[in-house]
Amino acid sequence: MSANRTRIVPPPPPTPIERFLSPFGRFARTESSGGVVLIVSTLAALVAANSPWAGAYHRFFETPLTLRFGGQALEYSLHHWINDGLMAVFFFVVGLEIKREVLVGELASMRRAALPIAGALGGMVVPALIFTLLNLGGRGASGWGIPMATDIAFAMGVLALLGNRAPAPLKIFLAALAIADDIGAVLVIAVFYTAVIDMNMLLLGFALIVALAVFNRLGARRPYIYLVLGLAVWLCFLKSGVHATVAGVLVAMTIPARTRIDTGEFLERGRQILKGFDEAGPEGPDILTNHAQQAAIIELENTAEAAQAPLQWIEHGLQPWVAFFIIPLFAFANAGVELKGELANAFTSPVTLGVLFGLLIGKPLGITLFSWVATRLKLAALPGGCEWRALHAVSWLGGIGFTMSLFISGLAFTGSEGLVTDAKVGIFTASIGAAVAGWLLLRREKPCDVPEVPPEEMAGG
Fold it and tell me: Residue 195 burial (CB < 10 Å; 0-12/13-18/19+)?
């Protein structure tokens, strides 16, 4: 989720406030920063839930919040608004990343996509089977989707801590695998974790998505069109019974991914505008009073906007909000498990064991096995310069389920707090174990001289 950029010219001298905030900016630009903030939020939730203020912590997130539109009202708890509202923005960004990877990334061709898709398929099927075998016929049987997910923020954060011991091709493999994994998770949520469906609201939601697609084809690029209709789609899905976060992914698919001008036209226009800016001369003491130069700057801004796809700058603009606000807030609201007297009992629960073994054993086993089968069938090839030992080491990081696993556990066990707690214990334990195992295995790898891949080429899930 980081957004490092290579500067062509040095930036202007920093202002006093920029100098003060520069350490925070440098932290935010590191690959591991999102994972660090997520860990802090999770620990804060665990401390709050096991402190004398546990009651206040839980009551806070059950505070009802109401939005009124004329005679209509939406009233949900704060916890519900976070999980169904803010998380729709997270899924929207996931949808943008999926679309970008399918168009121009690692999923753009079957040859490039075959290995991560095979790995993702194995990383979903094997954990689900392990969970099902341990919970067949039991109260927790509906939780089979919990160990299927990978938390890309955590996983990429662990890779970032390893520096050049994590080969760049494997970073791309893990990122593409997580995107394919996200596609599977969205489908599972939409198909298997949906309540009773209101077909009228669902059809209206899909009609609005078609309208968004039409606006895209007509060349509409202003974000307010997609914001207004996107909110309407979210509301329709919220009322339809299909989980509202699915709307985020579907709306993302309608965001324009084309630029209005190509690089050659951008260069030509840019040169002409800068020439005009130079020729405008010192009409005033500075740009503020030079109307010709002001006009040139505005024209340059419009040209720069035309050279970027809305998908590109919307994703870039939302990523910091998702990484440093939405996901940490989701973790703080959902990771508060009361461990006193329940931890030992949880490890005897089939749900805890199903999640634990599904993520910690099923994920690396499924990813490695299905990737190996794909290469043996000549459907895919290992990333350049990488061996099976390194791919297997990275596959352990796929067992860091955390964010998506927590999300699915809330859907699978609605109204069953005991089962949700058991699932959370399994998620926490497995995610920590997978992170440590992957880190230790990758530390044994020799430093890689392959150039680092820019973060914008590595999708986040």
Answer: exposed
Distance (Å, whole) CA 428 – CA 356: 9
By residue count, the chain amounts to 461
Which residue, chain included where needed, has tokens 């392990």?
130
**Coil, helix or strand for 178?**
helix
pLDDT for res 460: 36
Task: Please tell me the distance from the alpha carbon of residue 171 to that of residue 316, in angstroms, as a whole number.
Answer: 20
Q: What residues does 66 pair with on adjacent strands?
A: 75
Instruction: Give CA separation, 103 vs 5, 95, 147, 261, 382, in Å.
Output: 22, 12, 28, 18, 22
The DSSP bridge partners found for residue 69 are: 72
Interatomic CA distance for residues 457 and 173, integer angstroms: 11
Give 342's pLDDT tier (boundaries 50, 70, 90). Answer: low
Handedness of CA 296, 302, 303, 308 (dihedral sign): positive
In tens, the pLDDT along 146-179 reads 998 888 777 777 777 776 666 677 777 888 888 8
**Structure-token pair, residue 354:** 């199903």
pLDDT (0 to 100) of residue 19: 54
* Structure token digits, residue 180: 């394919």
pLDDT at 221 over 70: yes
Measured CA to CA, the distance from residue 191 to residue 10 in angstroms comes to 51
Q: Which positions ≥6 away from 333 have C-beta within 8 Å?
A: 45, 61, 78, 79, 82, 83
The region, left, alpha or beta by phi > 0 then psi within -120 to 50, assigned to residue 132 is alpha
Structure tokens at 292: 């010709």
d(CA 138, CA 274): 70
Tell me: the pLDDT tens digits for 279-319?
Answer: 877 666 667 767 888 888 889 888 888 888 889 889 888 88
User: Which segments within 33-137 are labelled E, that is strand?
Assistant: 64-69, 72-77
